[in-house]
Design brief:
Helices cover 36% and strands 36% of the residues. It is built from 2 helices and 9 strands; from the N terminus they run H-E-E-H-E-E-E-E-E-E-E.
Length: 170
């Protein structure tokens, strides 16, 4: 009789252990499934945001972002293209705006065999439909052949949404 009681008790204990083990397995599987779902959602969201950025750049929209202190920086690919006027090459263009004050900075390199400069350039900023937003002037100091200088221009207007600029000599 005692053997039967101990067998029954042992069966109950084994059955309770199996039930706990099964619960733990199910809980573990559930946690793994939840983690996989979260990872999948994060990857899909990141992929969607990257595709949206790529589509905006392909469609030619002007892109800018805000820095922490409120500065808008224009990242239009068209604005960043190299421009040339009378043997002077304009590269590394950077257009930023802070509280409706815009600053244009670029590298100007003399690609000719003679000194150039000592005159004004007009920078006409346009939107993607080629409508003028604003024109600002900047003075070009004397630039020796092969020499590079920094070109600076400023305006008390928001130019952060400019798509491109056209440079002409005054």
């Amino acid at each position: 009789m005692e053997k039967e009681k101990s067998k029954t008790k042992s069966k109950k204990t084994n059955s309770e252990k199996n039930t706990k083990l099964n619960r733990n397995k199910l809980l573990f599987i559930l946690v793994v499934i939840i983690v996989i779902i979260i990872i999948a959602v994060v990857l899909v969201k990141n992929n969607d945001s990257k595709e949206n950025t790529d589509q905006n750049e392909i469609s030619g929209e002007t892109q800018f972002y805000r820095e922490e202190e409120g500065t808008k920086i224009n990242t239009s690919n068209k604005l960043a293209e190299t421009k040339e006027i009378e043997g002077l090459e304009i590269t590394n263009a950077n257009l930023s705006e802070y509280e409706n004050n815009s600053t244009f900075i670029a590298t100007l390199t003399n690609k000719t065999n003679t000194a150039s400069g000592e005159y004004y350039l007009d920078l006409k900023f346009v939107d993607k439909d080629n409508n003028e937003i604003a024109t600002i002037s900047c003075y070009v100091d004397k630039v020796e052949p092969g020499q590079s200088i920094e070109l600076n221009a400023a305006a008390t207007a928001s130019l952060a949404d400019a798509y491109d600029y056209i440079v002409t000599r005054q």
